[in-house]
């Protein structure tokens, strides 16, 4: 795994928010408070020693549901979608993961199988950590142990948000509003004006599958949100101007 190199191709989906790929964890502009890569400098340096760096082109598979979880992956740049279900059958998008996310953490800690599949939405840079090296790293750093627990709790929160979006939101507008706000918090940034901005990485068809509706209804509802000036979409980025009004739908 340490020698794995995958050449980068041009993305075929929407362009993400402009951020440069990090040269090292300490110099990375994508580090976010509360995520695994926001560990203290000394601990982070030891984590870097246990990892390599790989590049993944857009629309490439990283791992598949049911495979032995031999590695976990820290996303340095780019975005991946996590899906559950066999490709030949119905499957659902669980969430979109961006810089700072750790993929495969639960599977590695439980010495089990990947519970989802991961595919890149854009070119991505990742740091893979082999299972045994990560377990040794955790044993040597209590700060990393606490952060691992926090990340597992975060995954639980994401799963709960999915369940609430599908089961509790009575209207399509409410489900779509929930999804937009979830994406804003998971992969977006909060502006000084109190707005949220995030890259539009999912197709309307994929958003429809996450909100239990049709592509046409997603297109129509997004159009209404734009007409009401609650959101705007420009250069493949979504800006949420009225998060409170969107939240008021559910």
Strand order in the largest sheet: 1-8-3-6
C-alpha Rg, in Å? 18 Å
**How many separate domains?**
2
Q: For this structure, what is the CATH class of the largest domain? A: Mainly Beta
The appropriate CATH architecture of the largest domain is Sandwich
CATH homologous superfamily (4th level) name of the largest domain = Jelly Rolls
- In N-to-C order, the SSE pattern is HEEEEEEHEEHHHEEHHEEH
Predict the CATH topology of the largest domain: Jelly Rolls
What is the helix content?
A: 25-40%
Q: What coarse outline follows from CA principal-axis ratios? A: globular
Class inferred from helices and paired strands: alpha+beta
If you average the pLDDT, what whole number results?
Answer: 84
The main sheet comes to: 4 strands, antiparallel
First-to-last CA distance:
44 Å
Q: Report the uncertain regions.
A: 1-22
Number of helices: 8
What does this protein structure show overall?
With 250 residues, the protein is α+β, with helices and mostly antiparallel strands. It has two domains: 25-164, Jelly Rolls (Sandwich), CATH 2.60.120.10; 170-247, Winged helix-like DNA-binding domain superfamily/Winged helix DNA-binding domain (Arc Repressor Mutant, subunit A, Orthogonal Bundle). The chain is 36% helix and 20% strand. The chain has eight helices and twelve strands. The protein has helices at 41-49, 105-109, 131-140, 142-167, 172-187, 204-210, 215-227, 243-247, and strands at residues 54-56, 61-63, 71-77, 80-84, 92-97, 102-103, 117-120, 124-130, 189-190, 196-199, 231-234, 237-240. The strands form three sheets. The protein has a four-stranded antiparallel sheet. The termini are far apart.
């Amino acid at each position: 795994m340490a020698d794995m190199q995958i050449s980068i191709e041009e993305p075929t989906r929407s362009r993400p928010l402009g951020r440069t790929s990090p040269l090292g964890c300490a110099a990375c502009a994508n580090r976010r408070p509360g995520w695994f890569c926001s560990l203290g400098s000394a601990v982070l340096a030891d984590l870097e020693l246990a990892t390599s760096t790989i590049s993944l082109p857009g629309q490439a598979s990283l791992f598949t549901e049911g495979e032995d979880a031999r590695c976990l992956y820290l996303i340095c740049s780019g975005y991946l979608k996590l899906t559950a279900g066999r490709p030949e059958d119905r499957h659902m998008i669980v969430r979109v993961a961006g810089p700072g996310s750790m993929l495969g953490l639960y599977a590695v800690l439980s010495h089990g199988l990947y519970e989802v599949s991961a595919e890149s939405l854009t070119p991505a840079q990742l740091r893979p950590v082999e299972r045994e090296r990560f377990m040794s790293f955790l044993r040597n750093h209590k700060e990393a142990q606490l952060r691992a627990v926090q990340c597992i709790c975060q995954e639980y929160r994401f799963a709960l948000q999915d369940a609430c979006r599908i089961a509790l939101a009575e209207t399509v507008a409410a489900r779509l509003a929930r999804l937009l706000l979830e994406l804003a918090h998971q992969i977006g940034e909060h502006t000084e004006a109190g707005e949220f901005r995030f890259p539009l990485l999912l197709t309307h068809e994929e958003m429809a599958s996450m909100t239990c509706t049709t592509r046409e209804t997603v297109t129509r509802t997004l159009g209404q949100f734009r007409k009401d000036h609650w959101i705007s979409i420009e250069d493949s980025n979504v800006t949420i101007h009225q998060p409170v009004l969107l939240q008021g739908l559910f």
